[in-house]
Amino acid sequence: MKVLLRNASLGSGPAPCPERAQGWSAAPAAAERGGVGKSTFSALLAHGLAADETKQVALLDIDLCGPSIPKIMGLEGEQVHQSGSGWSPVYVEENLGVMSVGFLLSSPDDAVIWRGPKKNGLIKQFLRDVDWGEVDYLIVDTPPGTSDEHLSIVQYLSASRIDGAVIITTPQEVSLQDVRKEINFCRKVKLPIIGVVENMSGFVCPKCKNESQIFPPTTGGAEKMCQNLSVSLLGKVPLDPQIGKSCDSGQSFLAEAPESPATLSYRKIIQRIQEYCEQHHLQEEKIM
């Protein structure tokens, strides 16, 4: 689950975090199952939104037991710095800040073995004590499932007008079965769903351009699931070996392979998310 918040003021004092976010958008990136590409999508969404240099983007990694965002964003080995106004995010670009528990570990191989209360405390600290400043978008990368981290982030941001969640899946039924649970979770906690992204949706041969189904959609894939559950399908992203290489090297796949079919799919999905957020804010302004 990716949570997206837009136009926010964060980390500016000791008050609890929800009261500090005014007029912004947040989106959690979510998936019930691990390994479907949540963190990769979160990172590329952050890069895509930050391509507009007039926008300030924050990426918060709350996958506390498996923080991969530092590696994907090329920030492995970075540490959190304390300033007079709190912790400073680690910046990829001037308008793209990142925070992760990975920056607090002495080694990327260190295991985080925490129970719920300690996890909840760190998530609150990330929202309250990090000097995010004025941000236009906050992207929250969540762990698999519907556990403490998901409940905490929804609770702490409940007063911040979350734009919604982006849910990531792959085409096969074993993944879709778990995604249905994630959709039910969002509905139970009244978290809007921006839409679903189907990752690893076929493979386009770079030479002959033929498409092969690596993970066959045996029950109709995300498209049929979204129709049945009345959820928007934001798009389908084909496999590209360069995505894994870019993640390992900490580079933006969007910049490394601008002509890839996967890049074109990502850009369309990012545009749809931006349009959703803008429409969501217009509706809120009318209500207010």
Number of folding domains?
Answer: 1
| Proportion of residues in β-strands | 15-25%
User: How far from one another are the termini?
Assistant: 28 Å
CATH level-four homologous superfamily name: P-loop containing nucleotide triphosphate hydrolases
CATH architecture: 3-Layer(aba) Sandwich
Total strands: the figure is 13
Low-pLDDT windows of residues? 11-24
Please tally the helical runs, counting DSSP H or I stretches of 4 or more residues.
Answer: 9
Q: Helical content, roughly? A: 25-40%
CATH class: Alpha Beta
Nearest-integer average pLDDT: 87
User: How many whole angstroms does the radius of gyration measure?
Assistant: 18 Å
Question: SSE order, as H and E?
Answer: EEHEHEEEEHEHEHEEEHEHHH
Q: Which class of secondary structure composition applies to the elements? A: alpha/beta
Q: What characterizes the major β-sheet?
A: 9 strands, mixed
